[in-house]
Amino acid sequence: MRTTEEAEGFDGEASNTSMISGASSPYQPTTEPVLSRNVLGGIRCDMEYLKSYFGILKVVEVVLSLIGFICIETIMMCSPCGGVYFFEFVSCSCFVVTGVLLLIFCLKLHTKVPQFNWSLPDLVNTASSTFFFFLSSLVLAFINHKTGAEIAAVIFGFLVTGVYGVNTFLAVRRWRRGNGCQGANQTSEYMRARTASRGEMEARPELA
Predict the structure, then answer these.
(1) What average pLDDT does range 4-33 have in this prediction?
(2) Does 170 reside within a domain?
(3) What is the pLDDT, as a whole number, of residue 115?
(4) DSSP character for 108?
(5) Domain for residue 113, yes or no?
(6) For residues 118-129, average pLDDT
(7) E strand residue ranges, the chain
(8) Which range of residues forms the domain containing residue 74?
């Protein structure tokens, strides 16, 4: 009987010891579910931007640039080809750059880098696209072979030039407005700090 009681006592002590060691162990089992990370979960299409003036203008610019590029690509023979190659390069470049900016603003990727002023590259792109599209369309209008593809490319080139011009005007106005607000905020902060420092000087007791 003593042997049985001693064995039961040893079993109880062993179970208590294992429970204490398990409670004090830093490696505790967990039942929390492991959530899978969704990398693209935070990317959403900004429909408000697409409905805004800048979004609509960018969509029109991308479409017209693509149509102009397709028209100029249908030309099989040309002599001289300087105007055709120049228009081809401009339409393709503007289509790619404007399309990338459209994706950045539409998917709100620019909010991932808030330190960068995204209005400036947008302004540079619209202004340069306006100039080069106008120049390439003008060159192609004077140097062409009166084919339907060249005439269509010239028409779409001048159309997209007008759209880029409107976008440039709005981008310049937005950029000036942003700089004006920033300057006003800096001025107000400076005046507030100066007023606070002047109040501290007045509140300081005079030295005898």
Answers:
(1) 50
(2) yes
(3) 82
(4) T
(5) yes
(6) 91
(7) none
(8) 42-176
